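User: Please fill in residues for this 101-position structure.
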C-alpha cells in the first residue's frame, strides 16, 4: 500500500514537471509572449515552475535554432530520475540497464 502511494505521488509530480518542461519548449517554439504585460498567467506559471532546472542547463546546452534544447533535456532528465527512483522503490530488480526501458 505504501509503495503504491509513493509510486503515485512520484508519477504525478514527475509527470507535471516533465509536462511543464515540454509546455515551456512548445511555448518558446511558438514565440508566445511571457512578459507581465502580455497577461499570460499560464506562461508565467510554467516558466516559474521550470526555471530551477532549465536555466542552469541553458548555460551548458545551446539552443538549436528556435528549439530550446535545455527544456527538452530537462524533461528527459526528469523522466530518467523518476524511473530511477521507481526502480529503487521496486527493490532494484532487473538490473540498472532496465531503467530506461
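Assistant: Residues filled in for all 101 positions:
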Amino acid at each position: 500500500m505504501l509503495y503504491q502511494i509513493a509510486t503515485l505521488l512520484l508519477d504525478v509530480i514527475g509527470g507535471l514537471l516533465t509536462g511543464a518542461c515540454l509546455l515551456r519548449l512548445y511555448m518558446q517554439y511558438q514565440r508566445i509572449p511571457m512578459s507581465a504585460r502580455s497577461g499570460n498567467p499560464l506562461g508565467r506559471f510554467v516558466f516559474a515552475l521550470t526555471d530551477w532546472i532549465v536555466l542552469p542547463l541553458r548555460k551548458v546546452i545551446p539552443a538549436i535554432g528556435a528549439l530550446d534544447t535545455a527544456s527538452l533535456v530537462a524533461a528527459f532528465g526528469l523522466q530518467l530520475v523518476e524511473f530511477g527512483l521507481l526502480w529503487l522503490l521496486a527493490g532494484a530488480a532487473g538490473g540498472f540497464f532496465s531503467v530506461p526501458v
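For context: Helices lie at 2-29, 41-60, 69-89.
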